[in-house]
Amino acid sequence: MAEPSVLIHHCKLAVATETGVSVADQVGRSKLRRIVRPRQIAMALARELTPQSRVRIGQLFGGRHAQVVDSACDMVAHLRRQSAFDQLYRRCRARAIAEAAAPQALAHG
């Protein structure tokens, strides 16, 4: 069975569910660490799981530049060396894939 097509929206929803940081906060301007870290996870997931460019990912995260997406991915890679952070990333990743596989009525209803 082929892996479902993950959209950036699925990454945002997964991170919101796992971290409690809303999709609106993920695309907002806050620089609070409790908001920035989940945003970085969502960006890294979008880069890993979707075919979207860094530019497009940045646009969908509040108009950020591609370099911000690169920095987020680098930070997530660094933080994944910590077991607890890696477990959170893996849960978000699995949830994003599950969101993509869910029927439309359940995924957006």
Q: Would you write up a description of this structure?
A:
With 109 residues, this protein is an all-alpha fold. The protein has a single domain (8-108), classed as Chromosomal Replication Initiator Protein Dnaa, Chain: A (Orthogonal Bundle), CATH 1.10.1750. 72% of the residues lie in helices and 0% in strands. It is built from seven helices and no strands. The chain has helices spanning 8-19, 23-27, 33-49, 54-60, 66-79, 83-101, 104-108. Helix 1 packs across helix 6 and helix 4 (54-60) packs across helix 5. It is globular, with a radius of gyration of 13 Å. Mean pLDDT is 92; it is low at 105-109.
Features:
mainly alpha; globular; disordered C terminus; single chain; 72% helix; Chromosomal Replication Initiator Protein Dnaa, Chain: A
Question: Could you provide a short overview of the structure?
Answer:
The protein is 72% helix and 0% strand. It is built from seven helices and no strands.
In total, how many beta strands?
0
Which consecutive residue ranges, at least 5 long each, have pLDDT under 50?
Answer: 105-109
Task: Kindly provide the radius of gyration, computed on alpha-carbon positions and rounded to a whole number of angstroms.
Answer: 13 Å
The structural class is mainly alpha
